[in-house]
Predict the 3D structure of the following.
Amino acid sequence: MALHGAQARAQRRRVRLQVGLLLLAACAPPAGPEPAIELRGSSMGTTYSIVLASLPKGLAADTLHAEIRGILEAANDQMSTYRASSELSRFNASSSTDWFRVSEGTRTVVAEALRIGRLSGGAFDVTVGPVVDLWGFGAAGPSAVAPTRERIDAALREIGYASLHVRPSPPAIRKERPELRVDLSGIAKGFAVDRIARHLEGAGVRNFLVELGGELRAHGSSPRGDPWRVAIEKPSPQGTTIQQVIRLENRALATSGDYRRYRVVNGARYSHIIDPRTGSPISHALASVSVVDASAMRADALATALMVLGPAEGLRVAERDGLAVLFLVKRGERFAEVSTPEFERYRLE
Ligand code: AMP
Ligand code: MG
């Protein structure tokens, strides 16, 4: 959904490594476990890994995988901005300001995106696309120079989630201004993770871990019979060393960070996460934000929102709303951990 070319391949490789570690943490050699089944592939511009600790009798892994592919395809058909025929691409291309009928999935994601937009005081804004493009992170690809203040101000005048509306029935979205467009990259992966988990539960699978581009959800128990353990990485561009291992039961974990996707222009390093209030890439000491929540969609959007807000404001919002969050803050060569009380219960002692 968001990545292209060499950068995307490099990221996929790193994500795979990360998943390797994660599984290492999740499935360390136990005494007499059931063999885990892993379903892997690529979708939404990234990779996925689904680990099934056990399968109900009569259910074939291949059948399940085909069904999961179907769910991912449907999410791309709804929300990919890299697929010209997707619902969202057609909405973006349209200059109509009337209601535009969408699927239940797109409606759900846009409604939640607007809610997180309000909750974060505009730090999370799914209409920020034109500014993301200006900084060279959009579909148009990288640019050699940083944009001028005039161009940023012009792009800022085009955006604003307050001009985007959603209605439940029949499901539809509407823009007040013809040029407004929507990019759900900061929330759609979490939505897909939730949908896959719901499907697995419906099929009678009880013990599983779903991961898509670093957003994940764990249900039931791991192959060794205890709760799943997942690793939160140290935020470094090359490495995949573990900062913290947490225990997840029927919960989602989403992480947002600027340590993987960034661009260097004239020696300056630019994050792919843009602060819609200034029009510039975020530039604070926050290296990553991890959020645990009952919903992967919510955790995904919150992680991006808190990443924009930064360590001080982000912590204030997390505490205000009782969110389970771990902030990793750069302190020279090291990372300081700042977390909310709600996060503490997931830590492995
Ligand atoms: P994530 O990896 O979930 O943190 O999402 C990052 C992606 O969200 C970026 O690649 C952009 O496409 C998009 N994005 C960047 N800044 C924002 C923002 N302030 N609000 C919402 N989405 C954003
Ligand atoms: Mg996100």
In short: The mean pLDDT is 88. The longest strand covers residues 286-293. The chain has nine helices and 17 strands. The CA atoms of residues 153 and 279 lie 7 Å apart.
